[in-house]
Amino acid sequence: MYCKVLTGALCGIESEIASVEVDVSTGLPGFEMVGLLGNEVREARERVKVALKNTGVQIPATKITVSITPADMRKEGASYDLPIAVAVLIALGNIPMEYVENTVVIGELGLNGEIRSVKGVLPIVRKAKENGVRRCIVPMDNYAEAAIIEGIDVAGMETLEETITYLTQSEEQRLQWQAPQRARQEVSKTVQTLDFADLNGQEGVRRAVEIAAAGFHHILMVGPPGSGKTMVAKRIPTILPDLTMEESLEVSTIYSVAGQLQANSGLMKKRPFLDPHHTISEQALAGGGRIPKPGVISLAHRGVLFLDEMPEFRRSALEILRQPLEDKRVHIARTYGNFIYPADFMLVAAMNPCPCGYFPNRNRCSCSENEVKRYLHKISGPILDRIDIAIEAPKVDIRQLSTETQNECSAVMKSRVMAARERQEARFRGSGYRFNSELRGADIREYCPLGAKEQEFMEQVFERMNLSARSYHKLIKVARTIADLDGTDRIGQEHLGEAVCYRMNEGGR
C-alpha cells in the first residue's frame, strides 16, 4: 500500500513543504530510505522501527520503501522521524489515510516513542499556512512557538502513542484535545533589570549612545578598564524601541532555526543582545557548518552585537563583519546550496587605548609607542570606517561615584529615541529606508540637504580630516540623527560639529 504524509524541510532560514512517501509491498523484507538524506535522516530507520515496536506496533516481514521529496533537496536533522512513523502506520493500515490529509507532521522520536523537540518549527508552520495546510502536528515542547501562527490548527504531542490516538479521533474529539493545550500556552514577559540610572558620570558616552540608538548607528567606545564601557553596552537595549510583531517573528524564526528558542516559549519580545568572547571562530560568528545554521551576527538581528575588547578578536573574524555591516545579511555558499541569513544589527564595540589600557597616563601605562600602534592596528581601517560614532570613555571621577544625584533613567532616554525614530519613519515613509544610518548615495542629498554655510563647513572637514566618501556620508547621517533628537528638520552647523567630534581620523588612528 502507498501513502504520503506532509512534513517540513529547512533550507537555511527558509522552509519548504516536503512529502514522506511510503510503500509497503511483498518481497524480500527490508526498510529502504531514499531522497538525498543526511546522516540523521538515514538513522531515522532504526529509531522509527524501535519506537513503533515499543509503542505496541508490530511491523510485518514486508518490504518498506521510504522516499522524502523533493529528491534534489538535501534533508538534514531528526524532524522526519515522526512523519516517517505516521506514514508507515498508514501504509500498514493502522491509520486511515484520509485522517492525515492536509496535515503537516514534524518531530523527533526517542526509542521509547517519546516525541522530542526539533529546530525550525516556527518557519515550517508559517510555510504550511501559506500553502493552505489545515493542521500541524508538532512536539509539545515546540507547541508555544508553533501556536504563534494564527489561522492554522496546531496540536502538540508528547508520545507516538498519543499521536496515533489523536489521528484516529473525530474532528470534534481533536478540537477537545487541543483546547487544554491552548490554555497552557504562556505569554512570555520581558523583565527589565538594567537601567541607565545605575550609571554615574559618562555624560558624553550617554549622549553618543542615545544618538546611536536613535539612528541605529554603529558605535565604538574607547577607554581604560573600569570606565563603564561594558555597563553602557548592556543597557543599550533598554533605550531601543520594543520589537514590532513583524520584527519579533523575524527574530523568533532565526532562533527557532538555530534551536535556541526556549522550550514552551513563544515569540521573542526582547531585542537580542549578543556579546561573544574574543576567541570566537569565524564560522561561529558568521554561521555555517556541515548543517548550515545562523551565526552570532544573525542571532543579533534587530538587536545589539557587542564586541568587548575588539582588538583581541582574530582579525579574520572581524573582517567577516565587512559585508554584514553594509548589506545587513550573511551569504554562505556550500556545495549543496547557498544560504542567506539576515544580519541587521547595531554594532557596539569597546576597546582599550593600548594593551595595558591606561595610555596616555604614563604614570600607569608602560606600553611603548610601537606597542600602542600595533594594538590599534589590529582593527583594520575598513572596519573602523564602517563605524559611525567613536567616543572616548574616560576614567570616572570618585566624586561622580559618590554623588547622590539622581541619574537619568532609560525610560526618559528611550522617549527621546522614540521621538527621533518617529521623525525618521515619517521622513522615509514609502522609500524603503527605516533609519538615517541606512541612507545610500544620492538619497543622502535628498533626505539630508545642507545649507551653504553647512556645505562649506563640510568641505573644510573633508580636506582637514582626509575623509573617504563613506566617512563623509556617515558624518552627514549622524548629523541628521542629532537634528532629529533636537526636533528640527534642518541640519545645522552645530549638528555637523557634534558629528565631527564622534568621528575618528581616517583609518581610526
Describe the overall structure.
By secondary structure, the protein is α/β, with parallel strands linked by helices. The chain has 22 helices and 18 strands. It has helices at 39-42, 44-54, 81-91, 121-130, 143-146, 160-167, 171-184, 203-215, 229-235, 245-257, 282-286, 296-299, 315-319, 322-327, 369-376, 381-385, 398-402, 410-428, 443-447, 452-464, 469-485, 493-501; strands spanning 2-11, 14-25, 30-34, 63-69, 103-105, 108-109, 115-116, 135-139, 153-157, 219-222, 273-274, 287-288, 293-294, 304-307, 329-334, 337-342, 346-351, 389-392. The strands form six sheets. Strands 11-14-17-10-18 form a five-stranded parallel β-sheet. Helix 5 (143-146) links the parallel strand 8 (135-139) and strand 9 (153-157).
Poorly predicted sequence stretches spanning 5 or more consecutive residues? 186-190
Give me the count of strands: 18
* Global Rg: 28 Å
Mean pLDDT figure: 90
Q: Find the structural class using helix and strand composition.
A: alpha/beta
Distance between the termini: 73 Å
Q: How many alpha or pi helices?
A: 22
Report the major sheet. 5 strands, parallel
Binned, the helix content reads 25-40%
Portion in strands: 15-25%
Spatial order of the strands forming the largest sheet: 11-14-17-10-18
Shape: elongated
